[in-house]
Specification:
Distance between the termini: 62 Å
Number of helices: 12
Largest sheet: 2 strands, parallel
Structural class: mainly alpha
Order of helices and strands: EHEHHHHHHHHEEHHH
Shape: globular
Strand order of the largest sheet: 1-2
Radius of gyration: 24 Å
């Protein structure tokens, strides 16, 4: 059996084939397609792709994707399925509100106000046509079915969170709940591949975009390049922490108090998400729990 390195582009089913090829004794290296594209000379075909993959794999500074184990992929599937159903519920609610608003049936945004919209539809009388009422009830039934499935997957994620020791430690971080903790454990590559916390935050996409030259650093807005699911969850969790601190007050002399005194809340939330990512990387690398920093 020949033992060698088999570079391949990290696309759909790449982790499955990476595991199968690894079982044959090969050292598998997956490369993100964005890092292979610059090495494609001209036309897009299998020969040009293979040449580009081989050329990219030979670069000494190339970054590779770790092959995921089956259990980690399964945990990620639970989270992604729940995320898909949440998006479908949002689309259905937006469609229902938009259609009924044309007939004067108004309700605020969000799933919490569906009961008010259902009551308005039932008490509308003969104002909208019968077909509108039937379709509205059909959409409401669809939304309720989605909510049942979402609740079931949320309960499954909470159960998985209680059973995983690393996920329980991640939930000690303020702003990190069961869904975010499970997503961090399932979607993040091995933390040993990141030399420092900033690299992990950059992989998620929580660092400012750089336009530096001549030794002068110029930092712009947050670069939205990275793992968007984790970035969204971390920013949502950080936003809830910032809102709570803005309402109840932050400890005097703390980083949060200084930031809220001079910066917009959304900027503070993104900066806090960056800090949460760095703390999460440290917890996944060690065996400790989160400890609040001492104030000056």
């Amino acid at each position: 059996m020949h033992h060698g390195r088999q570079p391949q582009k990290a696309c759909a089913t790449s982790h499955h084939w990476g595991r199968k090829i690894g079982e044959l004794g090969h050292a598998v290296r997956l490369i993100a397609p964005a890092y292979v594209k610059p090495f494609v000379k001209r036309q897009k075909n299998d020969a040009a792709d293979a040449e580009a993959i081989a050329e990219a794999a030979s670069r000494p500074t190339m970054r590779f994707v770790a092959v995921k184990i089956v259990t980690k992929q399964a945990a990620g599937l639970t989270f992604k399925t729940r995320d898909l159903l949440v998006r479908q519920r949002t689309q259905a609610i937006s469609a229902l509100r938009g259609h009924l608003a044309e007939y004067g049936l108004i309700a605020p945004q969000g799933p919490a106000h569906l009961a008010r919209l259902k009551y308005a539809l039932e008490q509308s009388g003969s104002e909208p046509p019968e077909a509108v009422i039937e379709i509205g009830m059909e959409l409401l039934s669809h939304i309720e079915a989605l909510e049942v499935r979402i609740d079931g997957l949320s309960a499954r994620l909470r159960t998985e969170a209680r059973q995983d020791e690393m996920v329980r430690r991640l939930m000690t971080i303020p702003g990190v709940g069961p869904v975010c903790a499970v997503a961090l454990a399932a979607l993040a590559p091995p933390v040993e591949s990141f030399s420092k916390g900033r690299d992990f935050a950059a992989w998620i996409g929580l660092v400012p975009r750089q336009d530096s030259s001549g030794g002068k650093a110029r930092l712009g807005r947050t670069a939205r390049m990275g793992q968007r699911d984790l970035r969204r969850l971390l920013i949502i969790g950080a936003t809830s922490v910032v809102r709570w601190r803005a309402r109840h007050g932050a400890p005097a002399g703390s980083w949060m108090a200084r930031m809220l005194a001079t910066k917009p809340k959304m900027l503070v939330a993104v900066a806090l998400a960056n800090k949460i990512a760095r703390v999460a990387r440290a917890l996944m690398r060690g065996d400790g729990v989160y400890r609040a920093p001492a104030t000056a």
